[in-house]
Amino acid sequence: MDFVQIFSLTITQAVGVTALIYLFAAIGLNVQFGYTGLLNFGQVAFVAAGAYAVGVIVLTFDLGLWLAVVVGVVVSTLLALLLGIPTLRLRADYLAIVTIAASELLRLLVRSIAFKDVFGGAQGLNGKLGQEFHDLNPLPADFTLPVLTWSRQDLWVVIVGWSLALLFTLLVWGLVRSPWGRVVKGIREDEDAVVSLGKNVFVYKMQALIIGGGIAAFGGILWAVAKQSVQPDTFQPDFTFFVYTILLLGGAARVFGPIAGTIIFWFLLAGFGELLSSLINNGYIEFLTPTDVGSIRFMLMGLGLMLLMIFRPQGIFGDRRELALDAR
Amino acid sequence: MPAKTDHMATGHAAAVEALRDVPQVPGAPKPDPVVIADHVSRQFGGLKAVDVAHVEIQRGAITALIGPNGAGKTTLFNLLTGFDKPDTGTWTFNDKSVAGTAPHRLARMGMVRTFQLTKALSRMSVIDNMLLGAHGQSGERVLNALVPFTWRGQERANRERAMVLLERFNLHEKIDDFAGSLSGGQRKLLEMARALMVGPEIVMLDEPMAGVNPALTQSLLGHIKNIREEGTTVLFVEHDMDMVHDISDWVIVMAQGQIIAEGPPDAVMKNEQVIEAYLGSRHGSSLTDDGASLTPDAQGVNS
Q: Is residue A55, in this structure, part of any structural domain at all?
């Protein structure tokens, strides 16, 4: 067995393009759920908004990628307003129901035959979505990394993606240590108490939803640019729940929680997968076939999560004292 | 009667003096009311939880709102502070009509309430709880939040003000503790201090003594008196008559959603109707039973 290769493939996925997409969604969800307490179960809709903004603007309308980025942010803001205005005045669970329904609705809408001309139906939009971005790639044509196996194109995405992710992390850090952050944390703890102190909680919840959605939209933009393809069925509700897993793994309401959570989640998921495949291919495990690996790695992931919840329920970066307070 | 000094003098003596000639009947007009409510009613299903024809709250005094469980005290509180919407009714705060005003606006105008079930923000530090009370903070605007130098100075001033209050409420050694780690009584104190941080004109305390041990009750009573001595109006809900007798300047008695008596504590306690309402409730008759438990009042007082 080639352990170097297993490790290399694992690391490549743990901090790679797909991991980055989840990371953006998790940073956004941390603002919404971690700090403000908004139960947004439709985070995938914001990612889809970003991805489809690129697909539609670049491919359908043949306009520039940079315009697409702006449109992505605008669309995600509109989506946040659309979801938030009717529900944020109500109890927390209404937002949960509306967001999960809206994310499915959006997926079914973009894959419908009626809008095939714009959104490409079930096949989605495939083509040179990120050409303008890849043309800026400063890496030499024959560039390769030791150990890690990214293509030149992927490496460029990863560099820009991580820079952006760190920038957003910095933004969140700045926000949550400010008086604004204090208000949203107060809302998470007890909305009525914050109202009684003269704060318009509706506005703050809306701001958190918009900011979190906007950050997630960048995940979608990155997706379209890196994979040069946008497909409706990749935006299933389970995406959102993986993002929740990542957030809880790293520790909700911790600035570095999403980063730690993403890397660990993908390291374990990819690591299990690569290790199992290797064991099967080398004949150590005979009762499984390579096609089983995809689902078994999720089972192992689930086991890992259970162990985490039992032995470290606050997540990697969480504070156990805080969790104890919750039980009161 | 030196009515002209009402605005100047504060405290117990002034309040008693101002209220001396007020007729002891439900809905009595006060010389200097801060809150005036008319025809406020609220129905929960078939139950009329609150049906108040007229009530005035005297400025600068401690007014107790008492009554047996399910009398509608907390519901009236929720209505006046905008946390619940009445079926009918209008009311003014400082001569300004505020019916239908959003609760956070009322708080900014100076009508600040606390809750029966203490709402300390558990996973935040004591000092953060306090700082949340300060208003007009520029750092609470999302764009300013990222530019610390626009709010640092203000933050420092607020912190100083919070420290003074915390010292007064004997919580200054706990500033960095999670509010959730405080005892029940300390949380009551924190909630009161936090309400004062808003800089209120009237503080409305919903059962400030509920679930607090007798020793701390005394200190809580002292704090409430201090709030009045500084010129802030206090309206509080309570159902323990003894507690009320000790600190209030004026007592309003509710039963079955209506105001049945008003007056200084001594007079109210001798009032036939009041005794009947309380004894009635103690004997388990209709006052607290038959559906009256639908009001938020009856949903337990433990914090």
A: yes
What total number of domains does chain A contain?
Answer: 1
pTM of the predicted structure, to 2 decimals: 0.90
Which tokens sit at A269? 């998921």
For the cut 80, the answer to whether the pLDDT of residue A169 exceeds it is yes
Which one, of A314, A321, A298, A303, lies nearest residue A249 by Cα?
Answer: A314
Question: Could you give the ipTM of this predicted complex?
Answer: 0.88
**Does A174 reside within a domain?**
yes
Query: In chain B, whose CA is at the least distance from the CA of A176?
Result: B145
A255 domain residue, yes or no: no
Mean pLDDT of chain A: 92
**A201: domain range?**
3-236
User: Chain A contacts of B108, Cβ < 8 Å?
Assistant: 198
Cβ contact, residue pair A179, B151, below 8 Å: yes
Dump pLDDT digits (tens) for A173-225. Answer: 999 999 999 999 999 999 999 999 999 999 999 999 999 999 999 999 999 99
Please check whether residue B114 is in contact with residue B237, taking contact to mean a CB–CB distance below 8 angstroms: no
Contact B177, A207 (CB under 8 A): no
Q: Could you tell me if residue A242 is inside a domain? A: no
Which residues 178-237 of B have a C-beta within 8 angstroms of A? 178, 180-181, 194-195, 197-198
Note the pLDDT tens digit of each residue in B101-152. Answer: 999 999 999 999 999 888 999 999 999 999 999 988 999 999 999 999 999 9
Looking up tokens 């030791």 gives A146
